[in-house]
Amino acid sequence: MRGVPASPPPNPSASQPAVAGQHYENFPVASWLCPPHLRAPIGVIYAFARTADDIADEGDASPDERLEQLRAYRADLASAARGEAFSDQWPKVFGPVAWAMANHALPEEPMADLLSAFSQDIEMTRDGASYPGRTELLDYCRRSANPIGRLLLHLYEVRDDKARRQSDAICSALQLINFWQDISVDLPRHRHYLPDADLEAHGLAREQLQAFRPLGEAPPPAMALQMVRELVRWARALMMEGAPLVHRLPGRMGWELRFVVQGGLAILDKIEAQGFDSFSRRPSVGKGDLPRMAWKALWMRG
């Protein structure tokens, strides 16, 4: 058993990329734009989320085994939050977590919400379940994405309700953008994020989606592309609702968020550029897109 470390973790984010593309999508890991004194606790949050994501999504464990592992992970989080000893299973995660909670008053609830979302993903994938409508999907985003923004606001010492609402809008938009970007990846894994109500409104049955490329041979019909067009419009509106937050955060923090916002909008532009067909291929942003993103970030207006 291990207790609360008295000193910060040794440069926990030094080896992490600027954006976690392979494990925890759309997580703005401590880049050079981030204030140096916050890189350590932000790296702690990233390592916590990435490890939980790996428990939920990597390896050969059964769904029940993954859920049991997440319950144990949640118990260690509770112990760290209380300043008590935690298990030896993830010492490189919970040693730094305990340090961040003790030294930065990092709150437990948003981190627990992340674990709730990971568990929900396992259960829904196992059962082949889907989201009835956008309200239910946003509730998932509230726990899978919004906690990251709230934890960062806490570290930035921005605590007012308006900032939280704008942060929630940005984070939910990023999660939705990830869904619409990854349709061709999620369908083979039996992850159903396209809301049932949107499918029904466009005359589509979930079973039809398996016939669209790359799973099947048929291109997606116009009604499927129109559905994605409307979902992209929804995500873009949500992002623009939260975007004014970039002007609330001073210095490097505001610039970090500008690039997060523009990265999400760039993905939506890519989906639109390929005719809203993310059934056939996954659009992505590369180094060649950075100058355009930087220009748009520079000219973001209040």
Topology of this structure?
Layout: H1 39-57, H2 63-81, H3 91-104, H4 108-127, H5 134-144, H6 146-156, H7 161-181, H8 183-186, H9 196-201, H10 222-242, H11 251-273, H12 290-298
What is the CATH T-level topology of the largest domain? Farnesyl Diphosphate Synthase
**Helix/sheet category:** mainly alpha
Q: Briefly, what CATH class of the largest domain?
A: Mainly Alpha
Strand content range: under 5%
Q: Are there runs of 5+ residues with pLDDT below 50, and where?
A: 1-7, 10-26
CATH hierarchy: architecture of the largest domain: Orthogonal Bundle
Count of all domains: 2
String of helices and strands: HHHHHHHHHHHH
What does this protein structure show overall?
This protein is mostly helical. It folds into 2 domains: 10-129, no CATH class; 130-302, Farnesyl Diphosphate Synthase (Orthogonal Bundle). Helices cover 59% and strands 0% of the residues. The protein has 12 helices and no strands. 38% of the residues are buried. Residues 1-7 and 10-26 have low confidence and may be disordered.
